[in-house]
Amino acid sequence: MTEIAPREVTPPPLQAPTAKEKKYDRQLRLWAASGQRALEESHVLLIVGDENLGSNSTVAGVETLKNLILPSIGNFTIADSARVTDADLGVNFFLESDSLYKSRADETRRLLSELNPDVTGHAITTHLSEWLELENSLQPYNLILICAPISLEYLQQTCAYASENSIPLIYMHSAGFYASFSIQLPHEFPIVDTHPDPESTQDLRLLAPWPELEAAVDSIGDISTLSDHDHGHIPYILLLLHYLREWKTSHNGQYPSDFKEKTEFRDLVRSGARTNNPEGGEENYDEACASVLKSIAPPPVGSGCKEMMNMPSCTQVTAGSPNFWIIANAIKKFYDTHGVLPLPGSLPDMKATSTEYIKLQSIYKAKARADVAEVTQTVRQLENDLSRMSTKIVDSEIEAFCKNACHVRVLTNPNNASIPELRLAISDAKTFAGLPGLIENDWEGMLPVFIALDAPRKMDLSNLSEDADVQESYEKAVEEVERVQGGELHNISSVLGGMVAQEAIKLLTRHKSSTQMAQHLNGR
Amino acid sequence: MQRRDRGVAQSLGGPLTKRVKESRVLLVGAGGIGCELLKNLVCCGFGSYRSAPATENGTEVSPAAGHVRKAEVVVIDLDTIDLSNLNRQFLFRKQHIKKPKAFVAKETASQFNPSVAIDAQHASIFDSKYNVDFFEGFDIVFNALDSLAARRHVNKMCLAADVPLIESGTTGFMGQVQAIKKGVTECYDCNPKPVQKSFPICTIRSTPSQPIHCIVWAKSYLFPELFGTSEEDSTDMAVTEGDNAEEVAKLKEEAEALKKVRRMMGKSEFAQEVFNKVFHDDIERLRSMTEMWQSRKPPEPLSFESLSEGPSIVKQGQTLALQDQRAWTLVENISVFCYSLDTLSNRVQGGENVIEFDKDDKDTLDFVSSAANLRSHVFGIPLHSEWEIKQMAGNIIPAIATSNALTASLCVMEAFRILRSQPAKANALAEPTANNHIPTKAQTTAIGKPEELLGGSKMVFLTSKNTDRLITSQPLVGPRADCPVCSPVYAKVAVSEEREETLEALVDLLKRTVGYEDFSMTTEAGIIYDPDLEDNLQKPLSELGIIGQSNGFITVTDDSDEPKVDLVLSMTIRRSPVDNAEATGLQITPEKIELPPKAQAAYANGDMYDDAEPEPVLAPSAGAKRKREAEEEVESAKKRAKSDVYVVEDDGAILLDD
């Protein structure tokens, strides 16, 4: 009885699956342990603006926090100097009758904390003017949420801080049926786990085979002498490599390059299939032909990855560089040396005997491991050179980067642009210049929501468009916002809280890409 | 002075606020979306109407005619709370685990506003007490379900009761909301839903080639044979045309032999016997069928003696079973196999006669994981960790708080649109007016700008791929003329409890009311009447399963040359006394029914609907089967996507977390 071949597995946890793993099971299946860790290390600050108009979007803010506390962020802080009113009680689920006249920050913190004992809540009950000015007042937080309306001074201050410290910031506003939010991204915001389509991640290296893969092709020998069974079970990857050799001998050592050549190459492969069988063909040859156009290509390097390798943060790492850039630098060195990225190492399903498939799989996996080892060595060297030995980057982080290297991307906010609401409020010339064009092309009619909610009061709205209907839509929207006097409708704030939390999670877990546009909602 | 409902009143305006407060809504499901919906409903003023003393007495949900409709939120859920719910079902805390979801949801939501009226019911929505009368008692119904069968059931009940339904579901970062109203919009079944891929029995039992085949074998064959009732076959596998009849017969014998081994449960050699039976003897038999292995690698039998390490093996298995993140080795799988078999046998000896596989029952998961892996080893298929197997065996769908929060609030947004557009029902149960169930012509969209349906209600999608917008919507579409579920006309038959009527009386009533000539009648159990099937005519209706207190339907099909649409009858108990002069104790509402011509059926393709080809039966089967079938159908709703996550996508119709 033989032991089965060793498989690549995640390091075994020595203890039982914890209650925690069970509790978060459904979300771990979405963003994995690495995403969960990032969430749990985060501290989210919710700033409620100081204009005390109605409920001041607090329901939206509190609902956002609820959606972040449930999946377990590490800490949250609510900064709100207001006291609970009757109207708050009717619309905010995280207040109870006894909360009346107490500090809204304290009360919502207390009731939100009941949702998840793994999360620690804090409250700042003093006015913004008293704590924001303090030194390092924003230092503990890695995500800032702002509930509008807020006075310009504090908005500016917070946005500037977020920008300087590379922290994402989300601004949200909810009133009646209207809601909107915008994200201010840091100058550079790397996303490793871009969750690309599995089809697009296939990197088979057919045009850059390494010695072990070449040896596997050699080992098939003369395929014309194989039995029908063996012939029909050559993994298609080896078939393609085999025919590529044949092609090269008749094409001056060149690989098929353009569409025409690839089509010819496909015909060459197809001509090798045995058809004197009941099926009239061979499945592995069908698979080979089907993948020619996709697989016969140089090893891929994603555009996001190329951009990343050219960014100064990548080429000039320092002792203070985040882990991401240290690994990026090592990846770049690897790429410069080999002309390819580290091999991801996964194989698609294919017609083959189990033995042959496992053999081929281990060739790819061994190569991927070797590539990771090389990158890891560079990282360790860098850590040494930069005297970063105290904060060693964990192996799994390097491994994950190598696996996704092709699809890594860095979101950027090149000019450190602040959120549109702020640009509008400070009468930013460029923003104002662009406004007529936006109004003209606002085919979904959502801009009035944005203008009505967040345009500064001094702004002249009486002549935005020459089209009477369009102009009327702005006036109506402004009326609507005035009518509700900052009163929130629970479900609209709940939608907004859901959207903001969704984006916050993507930002915190570095999962997929986040929207960079202001989002508006008209729930009427 | 500020009022509690200032925010709601200011946003919705006076008339709509009043409508919302006075309405009576049904929430089916108190899971992920259900918890969020309940919060949204109470925070938006639903169930908060107070004043008329008449509404104070009745907490009972009585369908009695003339009963005053009480403003409240009725929430129904059959489930109890599990640890893995707590990451999103925010009305539940750790101390609530194992308690009924409906009750705890009410308790927590009531803390927000103690005066809000919530009626929590711990029950299955398939229960016969939730009949058409019951559904008619609501202004709006919200579906917050995790099962295709239950969704389809509520869809049909709402069509029959002519109550607007708001249907929703989420999967990972995605979600969907759809408003449904009889004759106005598409119904849930207007678009076919994917059906489960059922594996050919020979693939599962003889020639597995993927891990999922081995998992299905362990979960749906081996486990029930050893611990289940094993009476009925699982829908996970079925005899298909491609299956070899001879082999199928052999497999039956094999299962018989396994039953003998089962009788040894409790004896010390039980584990060894089971092991040798399924991983050695059965494999040897398979191996001997050489023609089967001409183009496949033959399986390699395992033998227990060569591996056994004495009693310590069970203890090792216990330790190993805790390591669910890595794939166990062959020997480790044997340890876990022996350990879980031991544990499960002890449970049976302890009085638990039948154990069903449940992904959250660790003992059953241990057994299925180890058995599936051992079988994979035998067939040269890669082994998996228990964590991975759990996902495949349990059809686990990733679920997060944010998508549920978004989806639920969007549901309420649609509810406002509907309430605004629909005239308020009388404060008593609405009596169906003539033809009010018949699809109106107004639904078809005029050329050019589409007509707004249901007050501009939309089909709303949450997406994650599109980074420009998170929420997209499209206008609702009118019903499909050939939809087998919503194209029929629905009517109600009141059955007298004091006078037992025969099927003939019903047939006569239909001829009289509708003007049928040739027609047939079908219940869930099959055809009960057609022009050539008269055996049942003299039978009392109750014998055919047609009773007043039920949630079943009779489909009446017009068999004439130019057929009218089907008529679907629901049953209710007759309230008014039977006048002796009346010819029958049956009453049909509406009293006059005009059926429009039937659209050409371009849609029903047999395999979509179980009841497409009903077999004639003479006696109805027990209603208890329903729940089971429903559950099986749930399984069938979820098919395996190519990634390692189970997702079902069908033209934008996403199914589903609860």
From TrEMBL, chain A:
GO function terms (MF aspect): NEDD8 activating enzyme activity
GO biological process, one term: protein neddylation
InterPro entries: APP-BP1, ThiF/MoeB/HesA, ThiF_NAD_FAD-bd, Ubiquitin-activating_enz
Pfam families: ThiF (PF00899)
Domain THIF-type NAD/FAD binding fold: 24-514
Region (Disordered): 1-21
SUPFAM superfamilies: Activating enzymes of the ubiquitin-like proteins
Known pathway: Protein modification; protein neddylation
Coiled coil residues, start to end: 365-399
Record's keyword terms, sorted: Coiled coil, Ubl conjugation pathway
Domain of life according to the entry: Eukaryota
CC per GO annotation: cytoplasm
PANTHER family recorded: NEDD8-ACTIVATING ENZYME E1 REGULATORY SUBUNIT, UBIQUITIN-ACTIVATING ENZYME E1
Family: Belongs to the ubiquitin-activating E1 family. ULA1 subfamily.
Function: Regulatory subunit of the dimeric UBA3-ULA1 E1 enzyme.
Official protein name in the record: NEDD8-activating enzyme E1 regulatory subunit
Automatic annotation (TrEMBL), chain B:
Domain of life (superkingdom): Eukaryota
EC code: 6.2.1.45
Keywords: Ligase
Record protein name field: E1 ubiquitin-activating protein uba2
